Amino acid sequence: MAEELYTQAVREAIHELLRTIRSGLDREDGPAPYPPGIGGPRSGGVGRPRGTNPSQQDIDFWMGYSAGYYAQLERGAARRPTEDYLRRLATVMRLTNDEFVALCQFALSRRPGRPLHPEEGLSVMAEWVPIVESMPGIAYLQDRAFNTIAGSPAWKDVFPGAPPENCMAWMLFSDEAREYTLIDWEAWALPIIATVVSKWADHPDDETLAGIYQQILRDPLTRPLLQRALRRARPHPAAARHRMRHARLGEGVLTVFSAELAGSPGAWLVACRFYPEGEPVPPPRRVSSPFGPACQDAA
């Protein structure tokens, strides 16, 4: 019974999502114009006036599919589509990345393998900047190529000089990072190299990521670490801790936590806490919402 209710809820979610998006489109703005006088794949060959929404048959025509396939998908009755089909559909129907992710989660029971648009993750909503800059702790915002977008005052205090424009490049190649700030630099470098390579594999056309990778190959200190990083180090985890030298507070341990921004896949908010030498560092632990069981009981 529960599985049937879930299946019905998924079908309704797909229907509501696609129907709502289709109702916001104009038929005349479709990617595949109809021949003059034809008006699209409808009986009589007479097109609807401009300002009307595309039909389900119009979507099939734009996609190059036989009539009826999209209608089955919108009803939630189609067999599981491929991600390539959903990606093409998202382009035709001008979905946002968030809408595309929702569609894949409903139709495929998973997130898509890569963002919908190549430029995703290179920008964030402008409201994030004052939020991050007003944070009391160490926090910064970076795009998918690790370029700094904004940082808190406490984050800027970490560095002996100007804050880096690209944190990953600074940690890997800067003499300031290697010789002063990052204690046991190699322990920092191995997961960073693995992270850069992983991110570049996701975005092979990104010039910044390609440039960092090429510099890894050229640099005499990072090049010998590359194979070890790919064999043994996993990409930088969501929670990490390393020894470092704070510009004002001296030596200690930095714990690093990161979260991907909704609406900007690949852009990350990174929050840190610094424990000066002698201050105990608590072991990693997870917490859950205290309201979870109460919500379940109420349901």
What does this structure look like?
This protein is of the alpha+beta class. It has two domains: 2-108, no CATH class; 128-276, Beta-Lactamase. The chain has 13 helices and five strands. Strands 2-1-5-4-3 form a five-stranded antiparallel β-sheet. A hairpin with a 3-residue loop joins β3 (239-246) and β4. The longest helix has 22 residues, at 2-23. It is elongated, with a radius of gyration of 25 Å. 26% of the residues are buried. Mean pLDDT is 85; it is low at 34-50 and 294-299.
SSE run: HHHHHHEEHHHHHHEEEH
Mean pLDDT: 85
Number of domains: 2
Give the low-pLDDT segments: 34-50, 294-299
Trace the largest sheet across and list its strands.
2-1-5-4-3
Helix content: 40-55%
Largest sheet: 5 strands, antiparallel
Strand content: 5-15%
Name of the CATH class of the largest domain: Alpha Beta
Ends apart, CA distance between termini: 16 Å
| Alpha-beta content class | alpha+beta
Examine the secondary-structure arrangement and name the CATH architecture of the largest domain: 2-Layer Sandwich
Strand tally: 5
Shape: elongated
